Amino acid sequence: MKLNLELPINNLSLGQVSYGFLREIFKRQLLPNIFPIGNVDISAYDNEKPFVDWLQFCINRSSQAYSRKFPTIKIWHLMGSERRLSDFQILWTAHETSTLTPTEQNIIKNQDFVAFTSNYSLDIAKKNGLKNVELCSNFFDSIHFKPIKNIVKPDAITFSLIGKFEKRKNTAQILQLWAKIYGKNEKYRLNCLINNQFIPQENWAGLINQVFHGNVPWNINFIPFQEKNSQVNLVMNASDIDLSGLSGAEGFNLPCFNMLALNKIGVVLKAHAHLDYMDKGNSVAVEPKGVMPIYDGMFFAPGQPYNQGDMYILDNDLAAAGIEEAVRKYTNKEVVESTLASEFSVSNSVDKLLSLIPKSS
C-alpha cells in the first residue's frame, strides 16, 4: 500500500498516539512516507533498532518518494489541518469541547474523512450536519503499559492523578477535594503526575502553594515529569484508585483509560469520552452537575476560531461520595478484571483508518 503519514512523533498526547500507530504500521511491514509534525523525539519509548531504522528510512525518503496521489493519514488537531499533502486525506483528531466553530466545521468539510476518538465528539459533528465523520477510538499501549506484580508501595490506599494541569481537567478542584477528605491522614496517599508544558517550571511551586493556600498536605506526592513511559507505568502500578477521570472535558483521556485497563478503580465523571469505556465493573460513576464555559484565560479563550464551548461541572459532594465508594470497593476487593486492553487495541484503530482508504489507492 502506498501511503503518506503526517503526524507528531514526540512524548505529548498526540505523539503517544502517533508512536503506537507507527509501531503497528511497522509490524505490518508497510513503507509509508512519514512527514513528522515538529521535532522527532522518541526518548520516552522503548525502541528497538529495526523500528528506529525503519522510521528513519521512511522519514528520509518521504519528500522524494511521496505523491499527491497517495492517500494521507494525518494525526493532528483541527487547528492546522487545513493544509494537506495529498488529494485524499484522513484526519484522526481529538476534540474536547461541546461545540464546533464555523472554522472547525470548514476544516472538517475539507477532509475526505475525519475520525474522532470519541462518540461524544462524533455526535457533535453529526448534529452540525457533517457527513464525512467516523469513530476511531484511541488504544491501549501494551508495549509500555502493563501490570507489575508485587510492586513495592506504602502501607496505605494510594490514589493517582495524572495528566495536564488545566481548568478543563478540574486539576485544582480535585487536589483541594482530596486534601479536604484525606489530607494528612496516614492511611491514604495521593501520587500526582501532573504537568503542563506551557507553564514555566519555575512557576510550579507557587502554583501548587496557591492551590493549597500554602498548606500542602504531606501525603500528597508531586512526582517530577517522567521522561520514559516505563517510569509512568511504575507510577500507575503503584496506585490503587485513579482520579484522572474526574476531568470535565476530554477527547479520550488516556491516563484514566490506561488506569482502568490496568485493573485500577477509577472515579470517573459520567460524561463526554468517558462514556465509551467506563462501566460498573471498572469505575465509580460521578454524575456531572450541568455545564459551564470552558474558558480559562490561558488555553481556552472566548471569541476564538477554535476550542469554543462548554465543559462538564464536577460537583464536590458527588465526587466525594464517589471517592469514598471507590475506597469501599478497593477495601472489599471488588475489582473486576478489565478487558479494555484487548477491546481497544492499536490493531483495531489502524484497521479502522486503513478501511477508510479507497480500494483503488
Compact summary:
This protein is of the alpha/beta class. Helix content is 32%, strand content 17%. The strands form 3 sheets. Strands 2-1-3-4-5-6 form a 6-stranded parallel β-sheet. The protein has a 6-stranded parallel β-sheet with strand order 9-8-7-10-11-12, with helices on both faces.
Describe the sheet with the most strands: 6 strands, parallel
Q: Radius of gyration from the CA trace?
A: 21 Å
Assign the CATH topology of the largest domain. Rossmann fold
β-strand number: 14
**Outline:** globular
Q: Quickly name the level 1 CATH class of the largest domain.
A: Alpha Beta
Specify the helix fraction band.
25-40%
Topology:
Blueprint: E1 4-7, H1 13-27, E2 33-36, H2 49-60, H3 62-65, E3 72-75, E4 89-93, H4 102-109, E5 113-116, H5 119-127, E6 133-135, E7 157-164, H6 171-182, E8 188-195, H7 204-211, E9 220-222, H8 229-237, E10 241-242, H9 254-261, E11 265-269, E12 283-286, E13 291-293, E14 310-312, H10 316-331, H11 340-343, H12 346-355
Helix pairs in contact: 1-12
How would you characterize this protein structure?
With 361 residues, the protein is α/β, with parallel strands linked by helices. The chain folds into 2 domains: 4-139 and 345-355, Rossmann fold (3-Layer(aba) Sandwich); 157-343, Rossmann fold. It is built from 12 helices and 14 strands. It has helices at residues 13-27, 49-60, 62-65, 102-109, 119-127, 171-182, 204-211, 229-237, 254-261, 316-331, 340-343, 346-355, and strands at residues 4-7, 33-36, 72-75, 89-93, 113-116, 133-135, 157-164, 188-195, 220-222, 241-242, 265-269, 283-286, 291-293, 310-312. It has a 6-stranded parallel sheet with strand order 2-1-3-4-5-6. α1 (13-27) packs across α12. The radius of gyration is 21 Å and the shape is globular. It starts with a strand and ends in a 6-residue tail after the last helix.
